[in-house]
Amino acid sequence: MSKFSQPLVSPRKVGELSRSSYDKSIDPKWILSDGSVASQAQYPELYLVVGDSHIPVNTKIALPSTLPTGAASGCASSSDGTYIAIATAALPYIKFYKNTNNVYSELSAPSVLPPGAASGVSCDDAGVYWSVTTGAPDYITLYKRTGDTFTKLSTPTGGIGAAASGSSWSGDGNYFTATYGATPFMTNFYRTGDTFAAMTAPSLGDSPTGATSASAWSYDGSNLTVLQAPTPYAIHYKRSGSTLIKLATPESVPTGACSQASYSDDGSLLCIAHPAAPYLTLYTRSGDVFTNLDLPVLMPTSASSGVTISGDGRFLYLPYAAAPFFNIYKKRLDNTFALLTGQVAPPVGAPTVSVLSKDGSTVVLANAPTPFMGVYRAVPHYDPETEFLLPHPELSNHNGSLLDTLFYIKAKS
User: Fold this and answer.
1) Is the pLDDT of residue 2 over 60?
2) Spatial separation of the C-alpha atoms in residues 145 and 121, rounded to whole Å
């Protein structure tokens, strides 16, 4: 359980929260937990518990000097936003970039390029293993990053036999899925060293029943969700060894064909985006059961093109077709999500595809019109070498507005 969702009962340890109607900070061991900046030297015990601060994306980053050469169809990011990729319909079909002090520079193209226009790109959390999907055989091209060099790997054993719509990786890089429009509509792979082989396919009755568009793995590869065109639009699996077991369909399902799905690292939260209102479906997962979660009060008024949740489940990123083109939400203590307003300057147009890095620090956009890409970052307004942010827990009432509640955090033992 996250330290930000601990039960609010008799806090005793450093880092535990207490909701109080009186000024608890008269006790020198307690301070107001209001999201303000604190000194690492003044509160070393608390800093060890809270760790590096997580702030939402707040800054539009200057574009790289070398941009993609055509309409972008996909994008991906390593968990910390250091390495990103843009997939395009024009040669060289894939471009890789590296972040150094919030400046992105293009890396050398792989010596072996994808065989044709790319439909998407994805990677594991470390940004070591990458997959580029295409409409031309072999339909999926795998790369391994060593330092800043990307090397093509052998085509997986039991590869796919149709134009691929997309791919996804487990965060640990041990499993990935390719989705496509012909039977059996998906192929799942596992990794041994740098070699990939197809997993045992689900039984006929448990496989997708129509063309698939996207998929999402939990970090450790325990859970997989595959998005398909026919109802119920999302199929959920758990993994046992190299076998996928289909789970029961949740009581509430998306309202139409879906565009993207994303898990929190522990697999307890799942978000699914779809062009039909209300544009988003949220679940909590307990064991093999998915339960609908209330949507944020302030939702977009146009179709969403995707969704990503940060690994810790704290931030949810939702792009859509109308200005300002994306929303960022923050999770409250009661598991509701609140819209963060005024965070960033909007992009020049709606993103075709976009993604939030797993640490919540980076948003990467892929666009059809020039400049074909965009990047946003979480840039701290304090010195992360000597300071940190105190948690800012929030609770809401039934209409989504914040309750006027003070929280205190134990800062010293």
Assistant:
1) no
2) 14
